[in-house]
Amino acid sequence: MITLFLFYRVIKWIFRLLMAFIAISLLWVVAYRFINPPTTALMSSRSSLYDIDCNQSWVDYQSIGNNIKMAVICGEDQRFKEHHGFDFKAIQKAIQHNMSGGKVRGASTISQQTAKNVFLWEGRSWVRKGLEVWFTALIELVWGKERILEVYLNIIEFGPSEELLLKAQTLRAEGSESEKAKIAPVFGIEAASQFYFNTPCNNLTKTQAAKLASILPCPSSCGMNSAFAYKHRLFILRCMRKWGKKLML
């Protein structure tokens, strides 16, 4: 009887904790539907690592140029408008590719990337993946596609390369006040547009937008002029020319 009583007590507390988690996470997601996330775990990590505040300027959805919206959708998630958070065709292809022994390929949608960047911590684990699924479903339900894309474009990392950031960190440690010493991790499309092209994000050309979108898969390890970014940029431009407008929201 005592064992059964304890079992029910444990189940009761687990149920209460689960309900509390659901309520808190839902309120959190609803709040960010109207309030812009002030920071993310990745921003905090980069800021701490390089001992400088991240370079970020928030812009609302209507102030983000169509060229960069199109380039990012073409490069990161071509079924963004169609799916409900998860691209099961891409997941199946990624599983088949990974089982064949090739370089590990992911299949995260823009919605998944937004959820994990805004609400979760860095790293890989089954717990984190499960929470990513939960928050992805919530933002798809509560935010809608425009808000998801707006938040994504404002919190995603755009470099610069780790090598350049380390050089800037060394210059700051030496007391240098040069422009190179002020270089910081770049997050969000407006900061990236100003950093790389000295122009607002709503003025980006298709080529400039494709260049920025091309570094998203590896913003700190491969720069805009890397072989990977160049190849990815050509793919994005082809996609933009052929069916880019059909992919737009």
List the helices and strands and how they pair.
Layout lengths: L1 H33 L6 H10 L15 H11 L11 H12 L10 H10 L6 H17 L2 H11 L6 H12 L15 H9 L8 H9 L12 H21 L2
Overview of this structure, please?
The protein has a single domain (53-247), classed as Penicillin binding protein transpeptidase fold (Orthogonal Bundle), CATH 1.10.3810. It is mostly helical and 249 residues long. The chain has helices at 2-34, 41-50, 66-76, 88-99, 110-119, 126-142, 145-155, 162-173, 189-197, 206-214, 227-247.
Question: Which percent bin holds the helix content?
Answer: 55-70%
* Anisotropy-based shape: globular
CATH topology: Penicillin binding protein transpeptidase fold
Tally the helices: what do you get? Answer: 11
Q: Residue-averaged pLDDT, rounded?
A: 90
Tell me the major beta sheet: none
- The low-confidence parts are none
CATH architecture: Orthogonal Bundle
Radius of gyration: 20 Å
What structural class do you assign from the helix and strand content?
A: mainly alpha
Number of domains: 1
What percent strand? under 5%
- Going by CATH, the homologous superfamily would be Biosynthetic peptidoglycan transglycosylase-like
**CATH level-1 class:** Mainly Alpha
How many strand elements?
Answer: 0
